Amino acid sequence: MDAFSWSTSLLALALLGVAALLTWLVSIILRNVSIVDSLWAVMIALAAWVYALAAPQTGPREVLVLLLVSLWMLRLSGYITWRNWGHGEDRRYQAIRARNQPYFAVKSLYLVFGLQAFLAWIIAWPLMAALAGPEPLGWLDALGALLWSGGISFQAVADQQLARFKADPANAGQVMDRGLWRYSRHPNYFGECCIWWGVWLLALAAGGGWTLISPLLMTFLLLKVSGVALLEQDIGERRPAYRDYIARTSAFFPWKPSP
């Protein structure tokens, strides 16, 4: 990165830190750190707008990138906020809270909110590269936008299918294995992965191939840290029917289910 990029990136990191600090203060009042999930997409979009405002030029790629990241933020943050509203702290964060007593309220500033801000800063690097690149739009941009569009559509459909399934009392205790969930146990995460590989293609088209760490990190987080691995670490014990679902259904990449 050049001097402009470094200074802008550090400014974005500082603003993400402020956003994390303010949200942390709210979480103490609510005694609920789950609100950080709603903040995730907002922080990445905030970084994108910082990069756009500081960019030395404007052009069609800037409009395209800002449109894509803003739509992604509104959909994901809005959906998570709606999904979590009135349900208290998520069980994953309850487990983190229990493991980090005493003084979890203080520790959560860096264990949860600070960490999220730092990860969001790294994930947003392709946005900086795409917004700063002077190259005209080309076929890589089209491919990136197409992959992004497919990813967000896949994610939105999966989220809608799961929400509708959970809203039906007749499905209480059952495993969602219909629609896109028949082909992947986590189609929403697969869609998110596609989104960030699409964003990286936009950065690559602008000369930002070095930001490959962003989609690689996102894929790793979704598969091994906060996504598939975390959600499924004890679900077979809590819901025995899920074991059969695991045996016949791909964990991540959509695939034909086993008989």
Strand content: under 5%
Low-pLDDT sequence parts? none
Q: Over the alpha carbons, how many angstroms does the gyration radius reach?
A: 19 Å
What's the order of the H and E elements?
HHHHHHHHHHHH
Main sheet? none
Helix content: over 70%
Total discrete domains: 2
Measured between the Cα atoms of the first and last residue, the distance is 50 Å
Q: Which class of secondary structure composition applies to the elements? A: mainly alpha
3D structure, described in words:
This protein is an all-alpha fold and 259 residues long. The protein has two domains: 1-133, no CATH class; 135-259, no CATH class. The protein contains twelve helices and no strands. It has helices at residues 3-30, 36-54, 60-84, 91-99, 104-123, 125-132, 139-167, 187-205, 213-225, 228-232, 235-238, 241-248. α1 packs antiparallel against α5, α2 packs antiparallel against α3 (60-84) and α3 (60-84) packs antiparallel against α6 (125-132). It is globular. The N and C termini lie far apart (50 Å).
Summarize this entry quickly.
By secondary structure, the chain is mostly helical. Helices cover 72% and strands 0% of the residues. The chain has twelve helices and no strands.
Provide tags for this entry.
single chain; 259 residues; mainly alpha; 2 domains
